[in-house]
Amino acid sequence: MGKKGINFHLFSIALVLLFLNPYIFKERVHGETHFMESLSLIRFDEKVKAQNFALEDLNGNKVRLEDYRGKVIFLNFWTTWCPACLVEMPSMEKLYRGFKNKDFIILAVDMQEDSETVRKFKAKFKLSFPILLDTDGVVASYYGVKAIPATYFIDRMGYLYAAAMGARDWGGEDAFLLIKHLLDDSKN
């Protein structure tokens, strides 16, 4: 049997298995399918190292992505004028508070706004996670951000795990399951 014949044969078997047991592939991916689908996340199939960067936080301190190696990173690109960003920020705070004492960090990267505008926004919404300033938009371009909000999940080893384009409810059960999965999976 040629290569095409083998591939078609394997594809046929996969379809039959899927028909007989639609949950077979969910089990194969360590139970991640449910929250991946419910959060509409885009999974990185290949290991891609997250692009390192250095940005200032609201206190003028330099923060490097690599400083958080060993932690699960929630990297979010946003602006204060973005309606969808306004919607998801409170749920990001809930997620952060739920995992901040574990090996988890949220880095919210504001795109091309001044520090005073961002500082007022942070105070108004009582946000406690770190906010970084991408004043020239270079870091957003590293990650190919074309629309906001855009969120990337980075595992403990510094590899991109998944991405979300648009706002999500990060304070819900599925988001908590995602972070727990990443924390547990990264220990292995």
Structure explained in plain terms:
By secondary structure, this protein is α+β, with helices and mostly antiparallel strands. The protein folds into two domains: 1-30, no CATH class; 31-185, Glutaredoxin, CATH 3.40.30.10. The protein is built from seven helices and eight strands. It has helices at 3-20, 24-28, 33-38, 83-99, 115-124, 138-142, 173-185, and strands at 42-43, 54-57, 62-64, 72-78, 104-111, 131-134, 150-154, 160-165. An eight-stranded mixed β-sheet has the order 1-8-7-4-5-6-2-3. The longest helix is centred in the first third of the chain and has 18 residues, at 3-20. Residues 1-30 have low confidence and may be disordered.
Query: What about the largest sheet?
Result: 8 strands, mixed
CATH superfamily of the largest domain: Glutaredoxin
Number of strands: 8
Terminal-residue CA separation = 39 Å
User: What proportion strand?
Assistant: 15-25%
Structural class: alpha+beta
Low-confidence runs of at least 5 consecutive residues: 1-30
Dominant shape: globular
Give me the side-by-side strand order of the main sheet.
1-8-7-4-5-6-2-3
Determine the oligomeric state from the structure.
single chain
SS element count, helices: 7
Main CATH class of the largest domain = Alpha Beta
Total individual domains: 2
Q: How do the SSEs run, as a string of H and E?
A: HHHEEEEHEHEHEEH
Mean pLDDT: 85
Question: At the third CATH level, what is the topology name of the largest domain?
Answer: Glutaredoxin
- In CATH, the architecture of the largest domain is 3-Layer(aba) Sandwich
Compute the CA-based radius of gyration.
19 Å
